[in-house]
Design a protein that fits this description.
This protein has 388 residues and is an alpha/beta fold. It has helices spanning 22-32, 64-70, 83-93, 107-110, 115-121, 146-153, 173-196, 206-213, 215-222, 262-269, 282-285, 287-298, 303-310, 323-326, 330-335, 376-383; strands spanning 13-16, 36-41, 58-59, 62-63, 74-77, 98-101, 126-131, 200-205, 246-249, 254-257, 317-319, 338-342, 348-352, 357-358, 361-362. It contains 16 helices and 15 strands. The protein has a 6-stranded parallel beta sheet with strand order 5-2-1-6-7-8, with helices on both faces. Strands 9-10-11 form a 3-stranded antiparallel beta sheet, with helices on one face. A two-stranded antiparallel ribbon has the order 3-4. Strand 12 and strand 13 form a beta hairpin. Helix 6 (146-153) crosses helix 8 and helix 7 (173-196) crosses helix 8. The chain is elongated, with a radius of gyration of 25 Å.
């Protein structure tokens, strides 16, 4: 594991006002690459995500979700409606390189912490802002919540089979995409700052990030006469791909089969009923018929049997693994994706690490999520935030 001084963003100071997922995720990405992240929280309750549970599991008094995206940070408790606290935070911003916020449009302006105001006290600061739907238009005041954004963006019509209702992803994908896009924008402005010597404003929204996430299929829609996506009725894997793309039941579990020749698949699996579909165009026009035949055939033997026929022939396929199965795999173990983090009170939790390798190094940090205001005393002294 490299020393902190070797991390690429070492020396960068990030002040993070954000809550929930998208903003804190962006700050976490920066922290894992070496930035020092100071999380600004309300003195009472802190980040609302501390009590936002994705299961009944609570660790060290806070939700597992909070721990997973707020590790490797410091916490400074401040009531932004209190003039003394606000003055201390503005003093901290004078020395910051990056600021992140994800309040609804207009909130930071009321506090005097909007981009124009902050630029007056620190022209070199890179200001990152995440909203639900941007800063203009009739949806500005809508709640920027992941499920709602997925639903409004059309994304949910790509999941599930044709006879099912629209289905959301089982992840907060809008938040995650927006958080990563914010990091891209912040890093680009930090590079520009090296040349131009001034900061700038990075704005992303959950809505725009979710539209960008669909760039392939939206491009097809826009250039194909506005035809809506049609999900397969049988084991849908992708609304715009033909047979055999999908996940199928086998005699003992499941198998994933990606794109490929139906005739080659018929030969490898010994499925003569598929040989009638010799025209590649039929692999889409007769998609459900083909997949129904394939589904019936695959149930006659085990996943291991089918993979023993497909994998040596380099026909793209894989078993469908649960997490408990995945973690037993050498392929999972060799990437060393897990780490232990420890809180100031000695609480230990397992979680994932930064997925980025730089110069062949893996970056881990054992620093857990902070308690509310855990670092106030030290930060007040270090940055002289309070008058004595």
């Amino acid at each position: 594991m490299p020393n902190t001084s070797e991390l690429p963003l070492d020396g960068l100071l990030v002040v993070d006002f954000s809550q929930f997922l998208a903003g804190p995720l962006a700050a976490l990405k920066l922290a894992d690459l070496g930035a020092r992240v100071i999380k600004i929280e309300k003195p009472v309750g802190g980040d609302l995500c501390r009590q936002l549970y994705i299961s009944n599991l609570e660790l060290d008094g806070d939700s597992t979700l909070f721990h997973s995206i707020n590790r490797n940070k410091e916490s400074y408790a401040a009531d932004l409606k209190n003039p003394d606290d606000l003055a201390a935070v503005r003093k901290l911003l004078q020395k910051a390189d990056v600021m992140i916020e994800n309040f609804r449009p207009g909130v930071m302006k009321k506090l005097g912490l909007d981009f124009e105001s902050v630029q007056q006290i620190n022209p070199r600061l890179v200001y990152g802002s995440i909203t639900g739907y941007g800063t203009k238009g009739p949806w500005v005041t809508k709640p920027g919540q992941d499920l709602l954004v997925q639903s409004l963006s059309g994304l949910v019509w790509l999941n599930g089979d044709s006879d099912q209702p629209p289905l959301p992803f089982g992840l907060a994908i809008a938040d995650m995409m927006a958080g990563n896009h914010l990091v891209q924008g912040i890093l680009s402005l930090l590079l520009r700052r090296e040349r131009k010597q001034h900061g700038g404003l990075v704005e992303v929204s959950l809505f725009e990030s979710t539209l960008d996430f669909q760039f392939e299929v939206l491009t097809t829609f826009l250039n194909d006469g506005g035809k809506s996506p049609v999900r397969s009725a049988v084991n849908n894997g992708h609304a715009y791909l033909g047979a055999p793309y999908g996940i199928y039941d086998t005699q003992d579990s499941h198998i994933a089969i990606a794109m490929g020749s139906i005739l080659r698949l018929a030969e490898l699996l010994g499925c003569k009923d598929l040989l009638q579909y010799h025209d590649p165009k039929s692999w889409f026009t007769s998609r459900d018929e083909i997949k129904a035949i394939l589904a019936m055939h695959l149930r006659t033997n085990t996943t291991a049997h089918w993979l023993s026929l497909l994998e040596p022939a380099d026909y793209w396929s894989a078993p469908v693994l649960a997490w408990s199965e995945l973690m037993k795999q050498e392929a999972f173990q060799v990437v060393d994706m897990l780490q232990e983090v420890r809180s100031s009170r000695g609480f230990v939790m397992k979680t994932t690490r930064c997925p980025i390798h730089i110069d062949g190094e893996i970056y881990k940090s054992s620093k857990g999520a902070p308690k509310i205001g855990q670092d106030n005393v030290a930060l007040n002294e270090e940055f002289e935030l309070r008058s004595k």
